[in-house]
Amino acid sequence: MLSSQWEDIARLVIIIAVRTTLNLLLERAIRSGQDMNTMIEDSQTQTNRSLKPDQTVSPEVAIGVDFS
What we know:
By secondary structure, the chain is mainly α.
């Protein structure tokens, strides 16, 4: 049987591992969302350049995705 001190250390290691994993996954999700926003903005800019001054287009049309 482990002493209570070793059990505390094991719990701490598990907590550190879980927090690190969650942090990495959250950073990846945030970066992915930022990349998607950048892609949409770039697509809108390119589409807006090809439109006449009085025309507009929705983001769905700009990136070619049907969200319905």
